[in-house]
């Protein structure tokens, strides 16, 4: 996910959020998401999702442009499942061995 920050003066910087490496924590009716941006610098981000956000999220996820994008990008979901659950290499660079094997 890309997010833009205009807090750097007249310069606009795109922040890359990688939710595959984020931590999710549920407390009561809130979900907390924490992680680190990848570009242009490593900044920690924190997001909070509450039940009031669900209707808006469902509206975005069920919109025609989003559904078309999902249909074109579905192969990314298969790659994610393969890397995360089958090969168990999510978050590692190509050729890098798991910590337990070093």
Describe this structure in words.
With 102 residues, the protein is an alpha+beta fold. The chain has one domain. The chain is built from 2 helices and 5 strands, in the order E-E-E-E-E-H-H. Strands 3-4-5 form a 3-stranded antiparallel β-sheet, with no helix packed on it. Strands 1-2 form a two-stranded antiparallel ribbon. Strand 3 and strand 4 form a beta hairpin.
Task: Give a short overview.
The protein has 102 residues and is an alpha+beta fold. The protein contains two helices and five strands; from the N terminus they run βββββαα. The chain has one domain.
Average pLDDT rating: 79
How many β strands by DSSP? 5
Count up the domains: 1
Share in β-strands: 25-35%
In percent, how helical is the residue content?
Answer: 25-40%
- Report, as a whole number of angstroms, the end-to-end distance: 32 Å
Pairing-aware structural class of the strands and helices?
A: alpha+beta
What characterizes the major β-sheet? 3 strands, antiparallel
Topology order in helix (H) and strand (E) letters: EEEEEHH
Choose one word for the global shape.
Answer: globular
Unreliable segments of 5+ consecutive residues: none
Give the neighbour order of strands across the main sheet: 3-4-5
The radius of gyration over CA amounts to: 17 Å
How many helices? 2
